[in-house]
Design goal:
The protein is mainly beta. It is built from two helices and 13 strands. It has one domain: YhcH/YjgK/YiaL (Jelly Rolls).
Length: 170
């Protein structure tokens, strides 16, 4: 795999492309730091029976790399929060359904709930958030500088099945 930009994932039924919001320079830097971990994450996304996996956590390399399969109904904006992580990068991919994803640089946020090291999460707010469509034809990667608001409804509240790959970077 070339490491200048995130790969296109080819599954038997479709091509999944990286979302244009992904910081290619940061991906390149993180990939070079641990190519094996990133390659295993993309292999899982390419080859696992994502639609057939039950809700839960799937360890691929202990706490260094794991997948979380979730199923939920999308939420109203008032029921969601911007979040950011320090130890892990998130690869988020919608298996079925669709949602909006809020995205903003952490530099343009204000912390509302301090960082919880055990859960690797802090919550934020911002007036500069952009909303992007998340569908089964593309995936997102969020690094520590990327605040993101997942699970937002795109029109109506609808069911979604999603995988979040947690890739340890620190």
């Amino acid at each position: 795999m070339k490491n200048e930009k995130p790969p296109v994932i080819v599954r038997s039924e479709r091509k999944i492309i990286p979302h244009s919001s992904i910081d290619h320079n940061e991906f390149n830097r993180q990939y070079k730091g641990n190519p094996g971990r990133w390659d295993r994450a993309f292999l899982f996304l390419r080859e696992a029976d994502l639609g057939g996996l039950e809700k839960g956590r799937y360890e691929l390399d202990g706490t260094d790399l794991f997948a979380i399969i979730d199923e939920y109904v999308t939420k109203n904006e008032s029921d969601t929060r911007l979040e950011a992580h320090c130890k892990y990068a998130d690869i988020q991919y919608i298996i079925s359904g669709g949602e909006l994803m809020g995205i903003v640089s952490i530099d343009n946020t204000t912390e509302t709930v301090p960082y919880n090291e055990e859960k690797d999460i802090c919550f934020l707010e911002s007036e500069h958030e952009r909303f992007m469509s998340a569908t089964p034809d593309r995936y997102f990667i969020f690094f520590p500088d990327d605040a993101h608001r997942p699970s937002l409804k795109a029109g109506e509240n609808t069911p979604v099945k999603k995988v979040v790959m947690k890739v340890r970077i620190r």
